[in-house]
Amino acid sequence: MKVKLDNIAEIKTGYTFRNGLKKYQKGKLGVIQMKDLKDYKIDFKNIDFITDDSIRENHYLKKNDILFKTRGEINSTYIFGKDILAVASAPLIVLIVKAEDILPEYLNWYLNQKSAKEYYNIISKGTSQKLISINNLKEMEIEVPSKEIQKHIVELDSLLKKETETMETIIIKRKNVITQKLLNLIKGD
């Protein structure tokens, strides 16, 4: 079954910091920016923290909110999976799943697939800096299988990511061992 994204998720822009972002060492409110989104993960170690009491709670991120990168060559989504006080800054878009028959993890997975990326290419505007509007994103059709199938997809995708990380670690370690052996050959060891 296909449904429009607007029917299954609330879609809103990230918070706009009109006077720029003023970082504070002891700030309690994390700010997720485009720079913090890498390799389909949120880099929580390097997010900036601020002290700002003027930001209303409706801007605060909740666990399983989905962050959408609207600008750049690669449009991708990231699931917010931490229990920390944070907001997403504009130009990020926040998707909040509102349909009970949709797993946020599934929607995040789906939005990162090739067919979704092809749709982003069609709806993006701009020559040097591609931009996707919320209105165009709302019209995107999402293929929604049963919740059981969604769970299987999410589980298999998680296993694939773990396997990929493990293989990358093995490759790096193997490269280091071989490089050391080659250096030892030079020294005559």
Q: How does this model look, in words?
A:
The protein is α+β, with helices and mostly antiparallel strands. It folds into two domains: 2-144, DNA methylase specificity domains (Adenine-n6-DNA-methyltransferase TaqI, Chain A, domain 2); 146-189. It is built from five helices and eleven strands; from the N terminus they run E-H-E-E-E-E-E-E-E-E-E-H-H-H-E-H. It has helices at residues 5-8, 104-111, 114-123, 134-138, 147-187, and strands at residues 2-4, 9-13, 29-32, 37-38, 41-42, 48-50, 66-68, 77-79, 86-88, 93-97, 141-143. The strands form four sheets. It has a four-stranded antiparallel sheet. It is globular, with a radius of gyration of 20 Å. The model has no long low-confidence stretch (mean pLDDT 90).
SSE topology:
Elements: E1 2-4, H1 5-8, E2 9-13, E3 29-32, E4 37-38, E5 41-42, E6 48-50, E7 66-68, E8 77-79, E9 86-88, E10 93-97, H2 104-111, H3 114-123, H4 134-138, E11 141-143, H5 147-187
Parallel strand pairs: 3-9
Antiparallel strand pairs: 1-11, 2-10, 3-6, 4-5, 7-8, 7-10
* Name of the level-1 CATH class of the largest domain: Alpha Beta
Under the CATH scheme, which architecture of the largest domain would be assigned? Answer: Alpha-Beta Complex
Rg, nearest Å: 20 Å
Query: How many DSSP-defined strands?
Result: 11
Features:
four-stranded antiparallel beta sheet; single chain; Adenine-n6-DNA-methyltransferase TaqI, Chain A, domain 2; 189 residues; 11 strands; 2 domains; alpha+beta
Brief summary:
This protein is α+β, with helices and mostly antiparallel strands and 189 residues long. Helices cover 36% and strands 19% of the residues.
